[in-house]
């Protein structure tokens, strides 16, 4: 068992009077008197909080977020650890972003949670933070906001749900939903089977148990060093998950006393290691957008070219759905992320710190793989290169991405005529119309689904294959869009085309019948239309009206950046000083 290393250097520890919360509680004056009086109003004794590190626990729990429905209990375990370590915990409810229920997409609200996180941590008397999240957008949002404040921080991942079951099948949420829905459309199963699947697909609290976006981003958080070791793969309902939460509460108090700020962890080297981890896991394409945004908040420049460069240096070693066979519980008991990273040490920066160890090297010492079919040897890799490729070409001058390990190999080099849908709603209405005369060679094109056009860049990128082709046995086609897709999805789907069509990117100029060429090995996405014709089309193009006339949506459409730069708000992404609040 790996031992946690706690430095003995008392000189590095902060004195009670140097705590940030001391400005609220420990000075002489009316304001401090008021703060202490109001804390008595809350029922706390002076001995419970004065002179102790105040720890904010930011909880994304809600009754309608199945990924986080257990986090109300986990917050209590974090508090237990904080109390045990001599700190003072305070729980704060923050926005819950549910990939399952929130429309048009929780991506529209990622930056809102990031703002809430930042301003809450800055404005209250807290010395450190524990962030509870896991459903797709909550991990990047919480860490983006926390990075902008730069307090000592620990992230507690929500953890994957239990594997699904249907008859003799083990199910992976998301991935098998798409599979069996297509089976139903193809006439292979009926309503009775679908009712059984509905009851067996998602059996417990926790996020998707495939290597979807949630598991990808929590693994990235662990690779960044902001979780305790092994935290990202513990099943949500396992008792080990509660112990991990308590351990995180213990650690945050120690980090405050050592003055270990988040910026000391979120370095350029840490982000490179997170990218390598995501690519070697065969992780979600959504991680590209989120890690670029997170790095920007940390003052680190991370680009699409960095993803493509690192992808060429790491193999895919995680045999996990949707690109492989197993689920997250299998990964956890195979050794989890510490064991996985131990097979990538030659590409990692091992001398950087984590929340639990002085170095990543120490954190990985002694980690062992217990199932080499789940976590592969390099000699038996699922793919020689990372699972996401970055494409360029006249259709995506600022880049696009494809999760090529989840596509049928024969489609990775393909040329076919485009069939264009201007909106997702139009596509839904017409995709099964025999008059379209679609064949497996056609390239399905969806536009106006990007950051502004979606709005919010919904997960529309896994466009459905027409019913009549499914009945012929066709299960994959080349599909391109400025949308995202779920990390649990699969297929030859080109995503995140930048700039998006809604702002006049080349995708706005494609017409049905235009030849489109995809060549993943050459990293190319090309529209075979002359430059002169493209210029004529551009001159005739008119921008669509803005989506929002007021409210948060108007702020979003005014400030949102494109996919290749992380879809952050421009006023949040830029560097600049923000003063500490005057306490008075």
UniProtKB/TrEMBL annotation:
Name all Dihydroxy-acid/6-phosphogluconate dehydratase C-terminal domain ranges: 373-567
GO terms for biological process? Answer: branched-chain amino acid biosynthetic process
Reply yes or no: does the keyword Hydrolase apply.
no
SUPFAM superfamilies, per database record: IlvD/EDD N-terminal domain-like, LeuD/IlvD-like
Species this protein is from = Streptomyces tsukubensis
Q: Which Pfam families match?
A: ILV_EDD_C, ILVD_EDD_N
Domain Dihydroxy-acid/6-phosphogluconate dehydratase N-terminal, first and last residues per copy: 52-361
| Name of the protein this chain belongs to | Dihydroxy-acid dehydratase
> What keywords tag this UniProt record?
2Fe-2S, Amino-acid biosynthesis, Branched-chain amino acid biosynthesis, Iron, Iron-sulfur, Lyase, Metal-binding
Q: Which InterPro entries match?
A: Dihydro-acid_dehy_C, DiOHA_6PGluconate_deHydtase_CS, ILV_EDD_C, ILV_EDD_N, IlvD/EDD_N, Sugar_Degrad_Dehydratases
Domain of life, per UniProt, equals Bacteria
What NCBIfam families does the database record attribute to this sequence? PRK06131.1, PRK13016.1, PRK13017.1
GO MF annotations for this entry?
Answer: 2 iron, 2 sulfur cluster binding; hydro-lyase activity; metal ion binding
User: Is RNA-binding one of the keywords?
Assistant: no
Family note: Belongs to the IlvD/Edd family.
Q: Which Gene3D superfamilies does its entry note?
A: IlvD/EDD C-terminal domain-like
């Amino acid at each position: 068992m790996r031992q946690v290393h706690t430095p003995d250097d008392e000189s590095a520890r902060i004195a009670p009077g140097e705590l940030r919360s001391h400005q609220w509680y420990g000075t002489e004056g009316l304001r401090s008197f008021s703060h202490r009086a109001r804390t008595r109003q809350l029922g706390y004794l002076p001995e419970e909080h004065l002179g102790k590190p105040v720890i904010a626990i930011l909880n994304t729990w809600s009754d309608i977020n199945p990924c986080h429905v257990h986090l109300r209990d986990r917050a209590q375990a974090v508090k237990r650890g904080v109390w045990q370590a001599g700190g003072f915990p305070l729980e704060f409810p923050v926005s819950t972003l549910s990939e399952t229920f929130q429309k048009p997409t929780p991506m529209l609200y990622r930056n809102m949670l990031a703002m809430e996180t930042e301003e809450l941590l800055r404005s209250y008397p807290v010395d450190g933070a524990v962030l509870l999240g896991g459903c797709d957008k909550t991990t990047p949002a919480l860490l983006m906001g926390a990075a902008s404040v730069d307090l000592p921080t620990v992230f507690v991942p929500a953890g994957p749900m239990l594997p699904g079951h249907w008859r003799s099948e083990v199910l992976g949420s998301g991935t098998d939903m798409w599979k069996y829905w297509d089976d139903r459309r193809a006439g292979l199963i009926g309503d009775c089977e679908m009712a059984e699947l509905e009851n067996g697909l998602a059996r417990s609290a926790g996020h998707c148990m495939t290597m979807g976006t949630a598991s990808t981003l929590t693994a990235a958080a662990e690779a960044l060093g902001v979780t305790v070791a092994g935290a990202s793969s513990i099943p949500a309902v396992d008792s080990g998950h509660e112990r991990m939460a308590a351990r995180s509460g213990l650690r945050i108090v120690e980090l405050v006393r050592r003055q270990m700020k988040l910026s000391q962890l979120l370095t350029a080297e840490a982000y490179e290691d997170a990218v390598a981890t995501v690519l070697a896991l065969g992780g979600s394409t959504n991680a590209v957008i989120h890690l670029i945004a997170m790095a920007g908040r940390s003052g680190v420049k991370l680009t699409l070219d960095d993803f493509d460069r690192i992808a060429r240096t790491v193999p895919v070693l995680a045999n996990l759905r949707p690109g492989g066979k197993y689920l997250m519980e299998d990964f956890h008991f195979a050794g989890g992320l510490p064991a996985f990273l131990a097979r990538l040490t030659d590409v990692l920066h091992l001398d950087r710190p984590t929340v639990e160890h002085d170095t990543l090297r120490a954190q990985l010492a002694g980690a062992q793989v217990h199932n080499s079919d789940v976590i592969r040897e390099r000699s038996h890799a699922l793919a020689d290169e990372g699972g996401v490729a970055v494409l360029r070409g006249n259709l995506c001058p600022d880049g696009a991405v494809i999760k090529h390990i989840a596509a049928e190999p024969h489609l990775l080099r393909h040329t076919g005529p485009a069939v264009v849908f201007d909106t997702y709603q139009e596509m839904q209405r017409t995709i099964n119309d025999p008059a379209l005369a679609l064949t497996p060679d056609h390239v399905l094109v969806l536009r106006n689904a990007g950051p502004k056009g979606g709005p919010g860049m919904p997960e529309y990128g896994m466009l459905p294959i027409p019913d009549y082709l499914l009945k012929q046995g066709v299960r994959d086609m080349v599909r391109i869009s400025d949308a995202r897709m779920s990390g649990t999805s699969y297929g030859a789907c080109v995503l995140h085309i930048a700039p998006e069509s809604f702002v006049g990117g080349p995708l706005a100029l494609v017409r049905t019948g235009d030849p489109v060429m995809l060549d993943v090995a050459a990293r190319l996405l090309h529209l075979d239309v002359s430059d002169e014709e493209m210029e004529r089309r551009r001159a005739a193009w008119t921008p669509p009206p803005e989506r929002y006339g007021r409210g948060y949506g108007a702020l979003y459409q005014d400030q949102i950046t494109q996919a290749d730069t992380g879809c952050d708000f421009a006023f949040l992404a830029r560097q600049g000083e923000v003063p500490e609040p005057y306490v008075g």
